[in-house]
Specification:
Blueprint: E1 3-7, H1 11-23, E2 27-31, H2 37-48, E3 58-61, E4 72-75, H3 87-108, E5 113-116, H4 121-132, E6 139-141, H5 144-159, E7 166-167, E8 170-172, E9 178-180, E10 186-187, E11 190-191, H6 198-209, H7 211-219, H8 226-240, E12 246-254, E13 260-271, E14 274-278, H9 285-304
Parallel strand pairs: 1-2, 1-4, 2-3, 4-5, 5-6
Antiparallel strand pairs: 7-10, 8-9, 10-11, 12-13, 13-14
Length: 308
């Protein structure tokens, strides 16, 4: 059975482990620097597998060496966004964590695919690529899948429909520079614009862009974890089962969409080698300008890390 290593045993990491183990998708090792945290959660989750005959195995510990042999490493380690904190505030805090983790993975799991979840997502994905030296197809960030799920939920709520019946893509950054592609959104094949007014669509887009911040504000302490873990699990299924499904991920652009040397969320085709193909959609002039602006914003933050 394939092996997935999850770095960071917080809410997102442990919920992701639960989804993987209970589905039987892969064996999981949960790793966290805090002594006992990953081991304790793995023990608890392991006991829960008695209720799931198809469940995979799970173990946990504090040593990064436990990631050896993993086909995919999910990096969730880092500080969560607190109320009033924007993604830029997280940049310097989390960059050192990602650098340390990736430096170890270069030696421990040199053939793995890295799925970056640590925020700010696009900048941390770029940092993981530069720090690891891995081929770009083996580095991706979990961005657009979560953002699209939020858009699908808000659109479905306005319609009184099931979120799973809404098809939509979100591109750009995982933050204020995200671009919901409303033109191509549909509900069971019917264009969204035929079902919702322009004001209702605009509200769904606005709540999508502010979706993470809204949850942080409501929780007072902590951030989203149910939807992020579901988005990660969907991507892992696509990779390990070599499904080739198209989904949005933050990947390295080298000429696609007229952009170069930047990680942004775009539609891609995934498989067991990582990113199989970057899909170039025909964007409107407004969408193209928004994507260029997102790239400039991300590049400015990379300059702050000395990576420009």
């Amino acid at each position: 059975m394939p092996k997935i290593a999850i770095i960071g045993a917080g809410f997102v990491g442990s919920l992701t482990a639960m989804r993987i183990v209970e589905s039987g998708l892969a064996d999981v090792v949960l790793i966290d620097k805090q002594e006992g945290l990953a081991a304790g959660k793995a023990l608890d989750l392991g006991q829960a597998t008695a209720f799931f005959p198809q469940a995979a195995s799970v173990s946990g510990g504090s040593r990064l060496e436990l990631a050896a042999g993993a086909q995919v490493v999910v990096i969730t380690a880092g500080f969560a966004r607190a109320p009033g904190m924007n993604r830029l505030d997280l940049l310097r805090k989390n960059s050192e964590i990602v650098r340390e983790v990736v430096a170890g993975l270069k030696e421990i799991a040199p053939d793995s695919i890295l799925l970056v979840v640590t925020n700010p997502l696009d900048e941390m994905s770029y940092l993981a690529w530069r720090a690891s030296g891995f081929p770009s197809e083996r580095i991706m960030g979990m961005a657009g899948m979560l953002d699209a799920a939020r858009y699908r939920f808000f659109a479905a709520s306005a319609l009184g429909a099931l979120p799973a019946s809404v098809q939509a893509l979100v591109m750009g950054t995982h933050g204020e520079g995200m671009i919901p592609l409303s033109r191509g959104a549909s509900v069971s094949g019917t264009p969204l614009g035929e079902l919702l007014s322009s004001d209702e669509i605009a509200l769904a887009e606005e709540r999508t862009v502010k979706g993470g911040a809204e949850i942080v504000s409501l929780l007072k302490s902590g951030s989203a974890h149910f939807a992020p873990s579901a988005a990660i699990f969907s991507m892992l299924q696509n990779i390990l089962l070599d499904e080739g499904r198209i989904m949005t991920a933050s990947v390295l652009l080298q000429g696609e969409y007229g952009l170069r040397d930047i990680f942004l969320g775009v539609p891609v085709r995934l498989g067991n080698s990582g990113v199989r193909e970057i899909i170039e959609l025909e964007l409107s002039e407004e969408e193209s300008k928004a994507l260029q602006a997102a790239a400039l914003s991300t590049a400015a933050k990379l300059e702050d890390l000395g990576l420009g």
